[in-house]
Design a protein that fits this description.
The structure is a single chain. The longest helix is centred in the middle third of the chain and has 32 residues. This protein starts with 10 loop residues before the first helix and ends in a 7-residue tail after the last strand. By secondary structure, the protein is mainly α. A five-stranded mixed sheet has the order 2-1-3-5-4. Helix 15 packs across helix 17. It contains 23 helices and five strands. It is elongated, with a radius of gyration of 26 Å.
Length: 561
């Protein structure tokens, strides 16, 4: 679309700009209040800052992404920007603002006045606020998904050499962000191919095929990494997964609640999305019948159905393919797993229901009303998300640095929390994790799986606890796995866990963490005289994924021997 054909700004554009400004303000507040990196963010930063590129490559098996995002972090580390949490948050803010700009650019590329539906659906979604600026690859992947969607359409409209090259570059970068982005890329390429075949633009079709081939070949280099990483999937794969888990994960990701308030009911947001998607599908199929019928503006009469075809094919194939993928991997579904499919659906709906449609009345008024309702609905939880800390491990580490003596012992309930603790704790007290492993830079799934093969893995931890208490010192327990003192002293220790093949949940780490911490709790309450929960004051709500407490155990029962 040329500059002369761009729709003039109007009320709809003004309202979309207000919504964009509010979303940008939320992202700024998030960067200001997020504070420390939580374990997944710390893992990514540690991979990026490995001593050499070979070390970075060797540790990709312990990261969820290809190396594009870690390499970007590594590049920003050269001027010292990544040395502090604030520097990481500034980079995340830049990605979030770039995403909003990408929505506007994509809207212009597809002939829209503004990305009003995308802003309405995503701009105040708490999960989006949490994800887009985090130190993970999901934010950059979202930016490149939006730009790839728009550029593929531009290439189909007019397959010039420059547009083909730009589409190829964006799609190639998009494929390098997250491994499963290839699902969405294939869906968009299929949508573009369907329009190219309809219009008999074979140059565009072969260009799309070439982009798909090049992007696919670029991923071959990661097959050894993916193969090594796949051996650790049983650790995090849910033994209770079924189709209802997929539905619950979807509802939780769309819920109007912050990450600091996970117990709040998820509400009716998912049904609103479903209804809007159904409307989009109906409109997309309906406009196919009008293709070529409008005599006053034949170009628009052809463009609108073709854009709807491109969007609906991309949306259906991308959503269906990704849900099949989720059913296959059977993970515990977190909100960030749905980021890509939400973004694809949002920009597709913008293309179907917004671009190349008549101005304000009545469709523009409906889009404006939809945006006002959606953003008002989610404004309060989005505001809460923008003021939520990502972790309080830094506060606990500072507290322990000031209160734990050199002869005390610190026990961190989970090895993964140990990644964050290792970043922020600078005291002299010896500390261990459950299970005890000797590396806390990244998610060392290999070391944890090795420990699961040894039923007596807790023996060195329990021995150190006994020696510490017997010496008149304290044991500090750090974590979020709840346990309470038994009604009476245990008569015998918790039995050793069975080996994974004999466990009902087999290699799932959750069962072993529960078992190991039961051993820990039984031992502490048997040998310690006192248990006191310490107050860790945070300046605001804390992300529930890493909201820990500290319990101090002291005193020694001589009759426990």
């Amino acid at each position: 679309m040329s500059a002369k054909e761009l729709p003039k700004p109007g009320m709809e554009t003004a309202v979309a700009l207000v919504g964009t400004a509010f979303s940008a303000m939320l992202l700024v507040l998030t960067a200001m209040n997020a504070g420390p990196l939580w374990r997944d963010e710390t893992n990514t930063l540690n991979v990026a800052q490995m001593p050499s590129l070979k070390d970075l490559w060797d540790n990709l098996q312990f990261e969820s992404f290809p190396p594009l995002w870690p390499l970007l972090l590594r590049g920003f580390s050269l001027p010292g920007m990544m040395e502090s949490d604030a520097g990481v948050r500034v980079l995340g803010l830049g990605i979030g603002l770039f995403f909003l700009a990408a929505l506007w650019l994509c809207s212009r590329w597809i002939g829209g006045r503004s990305p009003i539906l995308s802003i309405a659906l995503l701009g105040c979604l708490p999960a989006f606020i949490f994800i887009v600026g985090a130190n993970r690859a999901y934010g950059l992947a979202g930016c490149l998904l939006v730009l790839s969607f728009g550029m593929i359409w531009r290439m189909v409209e007019l397959p010039t050499k420059s547009r083909i090259l730009w589409a190829g570059l964006l799609c190639l970068l998009f494929a390098q962000c997250v491994y499963y982005d290839s699902i969405f890329l294939c869906a968009m390429l299929a949508g573009g191919a369907s329009v190219a075949i309809r219009r008999r633009r074979w140059k565009a079709l072969w260009g799309l095929v070439g982009i798909g081939i090049v992007s696919g070949i670029s991923m071959v280099i990661y097959l050894p990494v993916i193969h090594r990483g796949s051996t650790y999937l049983p650790l995090i794969r849910s033994p209770f997964f079924n189709s209802s888990a997929l539905w619950n994960g979807l509802c939780n990701a769309l819920a109007a609640r912050s990450s600091g308030d996970p117990e709040r009911a998820h509400g009716l947001q998912v049904w609103f999305w479903i209804q809007l998607l159904l409307v989009g599908l109906i409109v997309a199929f309906a406009v196919q019948r009008s293709r070529g019928r409008e005599t006053q503006n034949p170009e628009a009469a052809a463009t609108r159905p073709d854009l709807a075809l491109y969007s609906v094919v991309s949306m259906i194939l991308g959503t269906a393919g990704y849900f099949v993928f989720l059913l296959k991997i059977q993970f515990f579904l977190q909100p960030w797993y749905f980021a890509g499919v939400f973004i694809l659906c949002a920009i597709s709906l913008d293309a179907i229901l917004g671009a190349n449609w008549p101005a304000l009345r009545p469709w523009g008024l409906l889009r404006i009303g939809l945006m006002v309702v959606l953003m008002a609905w989610s404004a309060k939880p989005a505001w809460a998300e923008a003021h939520t800390r990502r972790s309080n491990v830094d506060l606990a580490a500072t507290f322990l640095g000031q209160n734990a003596s050199a002869r005390d012992l610190i026990v961190v309930q989970e090895a993964w929390v140990g990644i964050t603790f290792n970043r922020y704790y600078h005291g002299q007290t010896h500390w261990m994790t459950i299970p005890p492993i000797d590396s806390h830079l990244v998610h060392r799934n290999d070391l944890v799986m090795e420990k699961m093969n040894h039923p007596d893995v807790m023996v060195p931890v329990l021995r150190e606890i006994t020696d510490t208490l017997r010496g008149g010192n304290s044991v500090w327990l750090v974590g979020s796995i709840p346990f309470s003192p038994p009604p009476r002293r245990p008569s015998r220790p918790t039995p050793l866990p069975p080996l994974p093949p004999e466990m009902s949940t087999q290699w799932w780490l959750g069962s072993y963490l529960y078992w190991w911490n039961q051993q820990l709790a039984t031992h502490l309450f048997e040998y310690a005289l006192f248990a006191q929960t310490q107050k860790i004051h945070a300046p605001g709500p804390v992300n529930s994924f890493e909201d820990i407490s500290v319990v101090r155990f002291s005193g020694y029962r001589p009759d426990a021997e």
